[in-house]
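Deliverable D2.4 — example input (structure tokens):
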């Protein structure tokens, strides 16, 4: 993690965008013709995410992350909608 110590033992986050703890089931596509593999998104931000995977050593350097969330429309305007993520 990227932290540095401030006065009175308080830590400050140095990441560019805030991270949010989530527990989203997801899949990744190694993009090499093999099958999709499952993973769990543990936290997510505008710039990246932390994943739990079965075998980190076997992960390719680059891959396609796929996740889906069940949603409900909560707002409709012109050509845009707002959605709420549903649990489960």
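Example output (designed residues):
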């Amino acid at each position: 993690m990227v932290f540095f110590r401030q006065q009175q033992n308080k830590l400050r986050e140095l990441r560019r965008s805030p991270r949010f703890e989530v527990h989203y089931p997801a899949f990744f596509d190694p993009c090499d013709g093999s099958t999709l593999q499952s993973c769990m998104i543990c936290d997510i931000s505008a710039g990246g995410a932390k994943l739990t995977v079965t075998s980190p050593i076997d992960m390719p350097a680059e891959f396609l992350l796929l996740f889906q969330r069940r949603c409900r429309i909560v707002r409709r305007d012109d050509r845009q909608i707002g959605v709420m993520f549903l649990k489960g």
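Confidence is low (pLDDT under 50) at residues 1-5.
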